[in-house]
Specification:
alpha+beta; two-stranded antiparallel ribbon
Length: 138
């Protein structure tokens, strides 16, 4: 009888743990409402949770480990907003990181033309002309 009681107690506690754990999958964050959003959308300056809890946690001195900590302000930021060519941290530290100078980062051009990179279109046209010329001679 005592073994049976212990077994039932273990099942009860296991069901309690299961109910309190997050229903979100890996790479997701659970909103206060219980909904799940991608971690990259937490602190991205847009409310993705119905209750906006994904943006309400961003003004703090200690950020969750998957977020970027702005250097001189109590502000957390989605890591996808770091080195994107647009200053989101109040102190600008999201655009002053060493990795922002790497050549493989594409900086967004926010001019009225909206091109991703100022030299991208002419280089693409030159490459297409070279390919077309090679096809003429082959």
């Amino acid at each position: 009888m005592e073994t049976w009681t212990c077994f039932l107690a273990v099942l009860f506690f296991a069901s309690c743990i299961d109910e309190t754990s997050s229903k979100c999958s890996h790479g997701q964050w659970q909103c206060t409402s219980g909904d799940c959003v991608l971690r990259e959308n937490v602190c991205n300056t847009f409310a993705d949770c119905p209750d906006a809890s994904d943006e309400s946690i961003c003004k703090t001195a200690v950020c969750e480990d998957f977020l970027f900590q702005c250097q001189n302000s109590r502000q957390c930021l989605s890591r996808v907003k770091v080195c994107n060519g647009q200053q989101e941290c109040e102190d600008g530290s999201d655009e002053e990181q060493p990795e922002c100078d790497r050549e493989d980062f594409v900086h967004v051009d926010h001019s009225e033309h909206g091109s991703a990179s100022p030299g991208l279109l002419p280089n693409t046209i030159v490459l297409m002309l070279i390919i077309s010329a090679v096809r003429l001679f082959v």
